[in-house]
TrEMBL record:
InterPro entries: DNA/RNA_pol_sf, RT_dom. It comes from Auricularia subglabra (strain TFB-10046 / SS5). Residues 66-216 form the Reverse transcriptase domain. SUPFAM superfamilies: DNA/RNA polymerases (SSF56672). Pfam families: RVT_1 (PF00078). This is Reverse transcriptase domain-containing protein. Coiled coil: none annotated.
Length: 216
């Protein structure tokens, strides 16, 4: 996890991305990165032997700079734009809107690389009681266990209760400083933790309402 990024890491992230996804503020879609990557792979040099533009290596250099030094002031690399979609109820209540944030595709390509690296060790550091968001696990297993416990209680004529808890706005409640300490406590390489910290420290969101974009 702590090794430097390679052009192959970037290329794999590009090829694994899905077409037809909305772009972020820079307007660049995944398909453009795929075309540029495929063009270089098909012909790394022109008829005169001059190397053509290698987009994956260029992105590798950018991503490596982000890991090592963070983002420069004013960079919009980690900036997203949020579109509040009305769900139901009173339109003046913000709770009745679903926030959808669109991020730049190069940013998502980089975070996908980090996510793939994290997935390699997640099952070893996250307790088996958590089934969600861990590769190789399924919440269907927990559903089955719950069903079996109900059958057991009924067969033995035992009293019991099931408590279901759902924390409101769970993602919004995560403290970034605490998260970084957890990553370090789990023994993740300092380079990986630093990369996550650099992204969080530079993240901003603007809100799009009636075609107008707010300030950060």
């Amino acid at each position: 996890m702590g090794r430097s990024l390679s052009a192959e890491d970037v290329s794999s992230s590009v090829q694994d991305s899905k077409n037809g996804k909305a772009a972020g503020l820079d307007g660049i879609i995944y398909e453009l990165w795929k075309v540029l990557d495929a063009r270089f792979r098909a012909a790394p040099a022109d008829a005169r032997g001059t190397l053509v533009f290698d987009v994956t290596d260029a992105m590798r250099k950018v991503f490596t700079d982000v890991e090592d030094y963070g983002l420069p002031e004013g960079s919009r690399f980690a900036e997203g734009w949020l579109c509040p979609l009305y769900k139901k109820g009173e339109r003046s209540e913000i709770a009745n809107y679903r926030p959808i944030t669109l991020l730049n595709t190069d940013y998502k390509l980089y975070t996908k690389i980090l996510a793939m690296r994290l997935a390699m060790v997640a099952s070893r550091v996250i307790h088996p009681s958590q089934a969600g968001f861990v590769q190789g696990r399924s919440i269907a297993d927990h559903t089955k266990v719950t069903s079996l416990l109900l059958d057991l209680a009924e067969a033995d004529d035992q009293d019991g209760a099931i408590v279901a808890l759902d924390q409101e706005k769970a993602y919004d409640r995560v403290r970034h400083d605490y998260l970084l300490k957890i990553l370090a406590a789990f023994g993740l390489p300092p380079r990986f933790v630093r990369a996550v910290a650099n992204l969080y420290s530079s993240a901003h969101t603007s809100v799009m309402v009636n075609g107008m974009l707010s300030s950060r």
